[in-house]
Specification:
- 37% of the residues lie in helices and 21% in strands.
- By secondary structure, it is of the alpha/beta class.
- A seven-stranded mixed sheet has the order 1-2-6-5-3-4-7, with helices on both faces.
- Helix 1 packs parallel to helix 2, helix 1 packs across helix 4 and helix 5 packs across helix 6.
- The chain is globular.
Length: 448
Amino acid sequence: MTRKLFGTDGIRGTANQGSMTAEVALRVGMAAGAHFLQGDHRHRVVIGKDTRLSGYMIEPALTSGFVSMGMDVILVGPMPTPAIAMLTRSLRADLGVMISASHNPYQDNGIKLFGPDGFKLSDEVEIEIERLMDNGLEDRLAPPDKLGRAKRLDDAGGRYTEYVKQTFPRGLRLDGLKITVDCANGAAYKVAPEVLWELGAEVIPIGVEPDGFNINRGCGSTDTDYMQGQTLAHCADIGLALDGDADRLLIADEAGALIDGDQIMALIANHWAEEGTLRGDGIVSTVMSNLGLERFLGGIGLNMVRAQVGDRYVVSHMREHGFNLGGEQSGHIILSDYSTTGDGLIAALQVLAVIVATGKPASEVCRPFDPLPQLLKNVRFNGGAPLDDVTVKQAIADGEDRLGDTGRLLIRKSGTEPLIRVMAEGEDEKLVAAVVGDIVQAVEQAAG
């Protein structure tokens, strides 16, 4: 059985349409509650959200679903996704829920589910939840005297702030550092500046005025121009860009130049290997990571394993094979010694720890390797299967032949948006651009 609602990162869609209506959210709450009602203890679920307007619709619908099945609900309001994973474990909850569409615009929203261990649910559990949504939930409703209750947890932000601060090496401080932090008008708009300030930094916060509509708009890790400009304008030592739910991190050095997730993983891997704390003799990344990262790690005696795109698949491989560092080029960095999912703030503190310890500027510390020329373009489509088109298949085959052994080609459907992603990399930048251009043109024609 395949999943119909769940994608690579929970359920996602346009708010108040299709898979992201109040009715769907209600049934997700009911079905997830039914699945996790195991044992005679009082069951509880933690629900957080980002700053989208539609959160006001989805949060009470989910709450009603869980309460109707006999689960108590703890509401924490706008909080980063990794905070929900942490609080699920800390509060001994049976389930955690994050209402967010991550880096997508405000029109979209999503539902991410975490098990009692703080990890995202497996494909099998998501399939079971979908099955329950379609099969007799009404027969499993709690009797009137067993209904759940809902309450707000007022100190959730403080709990997460203190937890994040404890991941920064003892004996180090951020005193003397000026840091620009872009919170994408999203879930970390309060906690991110607080963490950095409490550790001693001078903080220039941007993207901290959410209005329900401006999440990820002209800001955050998917639109870093403003953060880079503000880092330069304020003569900051470093700039940090989070996404809407703060599980991603991208960086700008003191010159405003952008640093992606591959460079961040290389920096942390090298530092942890020198300290003897890196496990698995390498890292887990994805098929999107640059060949330059793989070559750099090989040069210092470390391995790089590629998982399919999606931080849940990176985490799965890390858990199965004993790695404690993994992530994606997009900025999902998983540090399993501290978190069960990507955490932009914790990753930022690991980078800042190296800068503080070495006394070197970000431009020297944060670029351990020279990336190969890589180009990624997205093609939006409206239904159909453009990758099955004969002309597209031929363009892909031609591209692979032209790149040969000196490059790499990856074409895939996005798991969160109606996009075809076309990526190529190789030693010849002009060839890479030509290959991507030809494939994009073929896909656009096939997509109509």
